[in-house]
Automatic annotation (TrEMBL):
Cell compartments where the protein resides: Membrane
Origin: domain of life: Eukaryota
Main location: membrane
Entry protein name: Transporter SVOPL
Organism: Alligator sinensis
Keywords from the named record: Membrane, Transmembrane, Transmembrane helix, Transport
Assigned protein family: Belongs to the major facilitator superfamily.
CDD domains: MFS_SVOPL (cd17442)
Membrane topology reported for the UniProt record: Multi-pass membrane protein
Amino acid sequence: MEIMLIAVVSPLIRCEWQLQDWQVALVTTMVFFGYMIFSILLGLLADRYGRWKILLISFLWGAYFSLLTSFSPSYIWFVFLRAMVGCGVSGHAQGLIIKTEFLPTKYRGYMLPLSQVFWLAGSLLIIGLASVVNPTIGWRWLIRIASIPGVILILVFKFIPESARFNVSIGNNKAAIETLERIARINRSVMPEGILVESVNERRGRFKDLMHPKYLRTTLQIWIIWLGIAFAYYGVILASAELLERDLICGSQASVTEEFGDHSQESQSPCHCRLFAPSDYQTMIISTIGEIALNPLNIVGINFLGRRLSLSITMGCTALFFLLLNVCTTSAGLIGFLFMLRALVSANFNTIYIYTAEVYPTTMRALGMGTSGSLCRIGAMVAPFIAQVLMSASFLGALCLFSGVCIVCAISAFTLPIETKGRALQQNK
């Protein structure tokens, strides 16, 4: 909800503060700048002090600054406060790490992609809320309402356990046993006989471990893939909003000008001001539903083709569909292309999240995810300037850039040195 919020609020703040294209793009960029800086920091802290603590702090931080955003008196304050929200959101990845460290090997490839259902639910909820709240009581109330789920989640944090793998890695076997016994009681099962045995590694969360010869090539290629996937993912989201806001469907602008004449002073203004119509929200909902359309196929690909080949195929298809956006088509055709693009970029994220969480050992898993998330945000920071600025100047040029990056990622995924399908999680380096 927090990430998708910018896409549905952008047209309103553009009109309210008379913003130019680069100023609208800067809002998203600063959100991801905050994410990028804190992603590494929180990853380091999570490997040293625990996943649960960092996850709780990040939710408190994100909810607090998100609520403050609704009271922004000016554009500068809005940008600053959304950047602070980005800092908080960067710690949410620890939730995926906790889940990864509890799931057995044979279930990870099935259960982790199903998390996408909740990302989808948040996206649909914020679009649905925006369609009702934006035209009636305004974007400030939309942000206030959108912060409610985060506050509710904080209240149920006591039901989320600390990772037993993390506790074992720091020598806190007692806490790990208590967590496992609690899980056994909930599942009406019994603990297996024996004791937990694992060597304690004091060297946890060190950046240089990512550069160890065993993981160097993997780390560099993962960073390239994360950067490219985020660039494509947020490019699709922002380009969808931009295509709708500016009505860039083939021939539509020409026909409108031809039939009615160009009476709008807004089209001549550097501060383009056009609010979403109900049909635009409907189109965004349809394209967003696409995020789960390929989930069953994605799960099959991950578990039978493996993580590397599956990711390579979906990245290649993403490149193709970006180019297809340039095909002269109807509104329905555009929705179809956006639908497939959202499905593909979502599948890409599913796969790389799973791969990154699986490939690194427990002592550096959070840091590996944190640095990858940080590099990912560089792609996300650049995406607004391509989707919201370059696309206005050169539509085909922007699409070719998105497509080219996806091709590089497809090659990088195919040549990853380690396949994690069926591989047990590593505890130490």
